Structures are given as C-alpha cells and as structure tokens.
Amino acid sequence: MTNENIIETENLSINFKGLWAVKGVNLKVRRGTIHALIGPNGAGKTTCFNLITKFLTPTTGVIRYKGQDITSLKPADIARMGLVRSFQISATFPHLTVLENIRIALQRQLGTSFHFWRSERSLAVLNDRAMELLEEVGLADYAHLHAVELPYGRKRALEIATTLALDPEMLLLDEPMAGMGREDIGRISDLIRRVSKNRTVLMVEHNLSVVADLSDFITVLARGEILAEGPYSEVSRNPDVIQAYMGSGDEAGVLASGAAHA
Predict the structure, then answer these.
(1) Is pLDDT of 97 > 90?
(2) What residue ranges define each of the domains in the chain, with the CATH number in brackets?
(3) DSSP state letters, 123-160
(4) How confident is the model over 43-73, as pLDDT tens digits?
(5) What is the spatial distance between Cα 163 and Cα 161, in angstroms, rounded to a whole number?
(6) DSSP strand E in 27-102: where?
(7) Global pTM?
(8) Residues with Cβ < 8 Å from 247, sequence gap 6 or more?
(9) Strand blocks (E) in the chain
(10) CA 233 to centroid of chain Cα atoms
C-alpha cells in the first residue's frame, strides 16, 4: 500500500447464496480526496460500502486502512481508528436537542457514550467543542431545538456533525443527498466540501450532478465489479459506463450532459 492511499481493497468479494454481489474489487482511495462510488441500481455500491466499513464480512479479499489489514476487525474497531461512516437513514436521537446529540457523540470518543445519568454540569465541559461542530455544519442557531423538529436537510447536517465529533480521518457518506430538495442539496454539498479540507471522503451517491461537482475521483461499479475509474470528465465519456446507465432515466441524461461538456 502506498502512502498516498488511505484505503485499499484487494480482490474484495462477497457471495450471497451463489450470487456474487461484489466480485474482485480492487479499490484505491487517495488521502485528502473526495472519492465517489457510483453505478446503476443493483451495482453493488452499498454492499461494497458495507464491506469496507465492516458491516458485512467478505467472502474473499483484503481491506487495508493506512497500511493495516482491517479485514477481520469490527465496525467499532475501525471507527476508533478514524474510519467513520454515516447512513442513508438519519441515526440521531430525535427527542434530544441538537446540542445534546453532539455531546453524546463527543462522549463516545471519550468512552462514556451512554452515561445519560451524568450531571448536566459534568457534560457542560463538552459544550464548547459541541458548539464549534455546530458552527462548522451551520447548525449553531438550532442548538436548543429537538432533533425531531429539524427540517430534513438540517437533520442530515446534524448526522454529519455527529460523525465529525468522532474526529475521523476518513469519512464515509452513504447517499448523503437521499430524499433532499435542491436547496438542501446545495447546502449539504457545500458542507461536504468544507469538511473534506482536512480529511478523506468516500461517498456512495446516486445524484450524478453532485458527484460531478464534488468528486476528485470516481469508481463505477456494475454487477458487483469495477467498470471504470477516473475523474468525472473521463468517466462520463466512457461508452461502457454510458451503456450501463442506459435505462436509468435522468442518470443517463446527466452522464450524457457531462460527456458533452467535458
């Protein structure tokens, strides 16, 4: 593994009852980049993501993070190493305030995650760092609202803030734009760009306009295998990629548009 690659997979594969959902994937993610994992429906993107983050165990293959073999580790182990993921569905505590959600995430880093019985005074020491994180994601004005009261896009920002509370070196985002309107997409895109300045981001994302705007490098999966890799300007012109997206409606149109303007 080279120093410029923060994560690499070698022949990463998983078989579900005779079906290879991911097969022979050799993925390299360079430090300090935003790397998108894309592909048509059923391509194996989320399965690959779950393998890398250890929510699934590979049938074959090796996963290395910062040169260390993490193939046999558990999700909590790799999170402590600085490899932290978000999910498609918000994982915040809806009936706690925005500030309380961040403080719990900060407690996690201290190894006291679920000490809800600790006094308010003892938790107050985390407030300064919590407010810094809320400022970073544009939620400082929402600190005392309950998470359930937040608009959808702001909830996604809160979830990103809770992952940032773990001080990740690498942030893995699973469809961060899922279910968002245009205004929220713009806001979260700006947020991802800001938080990527001192860390690496690997994201699974269906919105190809977002991928084109944010990504330094793209890996395209089809039927569980790598179909193409490169910057968006190259990938969008690849005839195999365009063919794979044919029938995907708007996604194929976005690719064709990208190819025309590349």
Answers:
(1) yes
(2) 1-82+170-262 (3.40.50.300), 91-167 (no CATH)
(3) HGGGHHHHHHHHHHTT-GGGTTSBGGGS-HHHHHHHHH
(4) 999 999 999 999 999 999 999 999 999 999 9
(5) 5
(6) 28-30, 34-38, 60-65, 68-69, 83-85
(7) 0.84
(8) none
(9) 5-16, 19-25, 28-30, 34-38, 60-65, 68-69, 83-85, 170-174, 200-204, 217-222, 225-230
(10) 22
